[in-house]
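Our preliminary data section would be incomplete without showing what the modeling component actually yields. Below, a chain of 377 amino acids is followed by its predicted structure, encoded as tokens that our downstream tools consume directly.
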Amino acid sequence: MTCPDCGHHNDTADRFCASCQAFLEWEEREAPAPPSPAATPSPPPARSPDPGTPPASRAAGPSTSVPPRPPTAPLAAPTTPPRPRTPPPTPAEPPAPAAPRRPGDRPERGPDSGPVPGPEPGPAGHPAPPRRPPGRPCPLCRTDNPYDRQLCRRCGAVLDTAPPPRRARPPWWRRILCRSDRAPAAGSRPRHRTWRRPRLALPLTLLVLLLAVWFGRSHLPDVFTFTRDRTTEPEALRPTEVRASSEAPGHPASAAFDGFNNRYWAPVNPGSGVGQYLEADFDKPVRLQELLITSGSSVNQDEFLTQARPARITVLLVAADGERRTKTVTLRDQPGQQTFAVRGSDVVRVRLTADADFGIRLDRRLAVAEVEFFGRR
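Predicted structure:
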């Protein structure tokens, strides 16, 4: 077949041009059928003279005399039908002339071709010629194609399915500063990124963070303090001086800070202890984190109910610069230690004032067995 676009001569079985990859024909050609023998007119057979005609009549005919044919017996009817005559085979279409080949070209191979012959050994003292790569089988119809074709000669499928060579990946700093916007090659699929590399978002984010740090620089000490509170273990803080609003005989204010829970502080007047307080001073400013209170006169249940117990206490924190902060804590009516989160920086004085009581009677006094402070200096 001759390509109508470039004029290249292809094999008869090719459907795509080997030179320009164009489609050669849309339907197969049909060879013209030879004329049927039945359609050829045959000359009429010569008629024999009737034997009943007199000789005079026969003499009156043309001058050429035909010798009389001896009488023959009538033919019997055939017992079997005559066999139909087989038409002669249709002559095949002559193959198109092959394209001229240059020296060294590899001949094209069809699907029924044999194995690829190896290179012949060269003469003595000379290396053997390089071996040509084998043909490319079509991934769809498995037709063997020459190695220099890009489309299948029969179905037109793409033969060059090898992935493109991978390029060396540049370092991370070059990928950020010198980002390439080159489009991917034809036939390749770009790698999917779950997070797109920002162009303006990264500088804007850094600028916002810097502005936040600049305007929030006054709160940075609190941030560092909170971090240290979470990462360091608090220690016991011992006050250097303690006092109370009033003290009953045998129950001084120091009994609430001596570390023993079988001794307690009580005000001088029995009955309600609302408004009575305990106060502790520190020689150096401290960072207060926790407050432990043991209410009642003892941790034993039978002795715990013999005196009144605080139900609600207001904690006043005084800083070194005179700043005051208050927090109210609510206690449970049960023996033992109760822990409360009370935080303050640069604390030099703590006051605990009773706001409500449990078990108030005229013969009972408000009792606090122990008060402890925890934090860091």
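The first helix runs from residue 55 to 59. DSSP finds five helices and nine strands in the chain. Preliminary results of this kind motivate Aim 1 of the renewal.
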